[in-house]
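Hi everyone,

Forwarding the result from last night's run.
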Amino acid sequence: MSAEVDHERGEDPAHGYRRVMLKLGGEMFGGGGVGVDPDVVQTVSRQIAAVVRTGAQVAVVIGGGNFFRGAELQQRGMDRSRADYMGMLGTVMNCLALQDFLEREHGIETRVQTAITMGQIAESYIPRRAIRHLEKGRVVIFGGGAGMPYFSTDTTAAQRALEIGCEVVLMAKAVDGIYTADPKVDPDALMFDNITHREVLERGLNVADATAFSLCMDNNMPIMVFNLLTEGNIARAVRGEKIGTLVSTPGGRPSF
């Protein structure tokens, strides 16, 4: 029997999740600096390509912190709305970099969809079209954030995941999971294996935007927080292996 997956019929491959939303932070794309670090993008694209070849459907939202962060620019006196729009443009640059590596280095078909119209370089965000791309085995990369100021790309990832029918938000970080405190500051900080959305919010754990966690909590969307820098972790997360921290709400969607 052929090991190939029929994307048209949507057959489930041998892994835990069929359709996932991968949230990538822009800071990681810059390797800690301003701009795009090709080595980091290569590492990320290689992991995504390996997952797509198993038959999983992968959507991606990328931040723009390696170029601009609206809240920080506001602190320096810039108008917040204008600063956020600049940040949205930064996310699109990251999307194009990931698209290039996925297609040129790994032969993976992709589509970039943006919340702000950019007809020459990307499609406009249309949920049903995004779903169709995923069913055809293409990676869909969402840029431009939510298209509105004051909304983080974490919240965009949650919203897009809900609208296109993802089963989980995979939140890739530079740490292993969610801790009781910042592990870089507190050596005694303990990592959670499992935690609820409400606990994250009530404890004020600085993992992602509170609006994103609230949206996922209200709609029973699980979030898996894991370390992107460990090779193969994206595939492990998609298979539902016990890595990082799983955030869920009792009685919500089943996790593996």
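The radius of gyration is 17 Å.

Cheers,
N.
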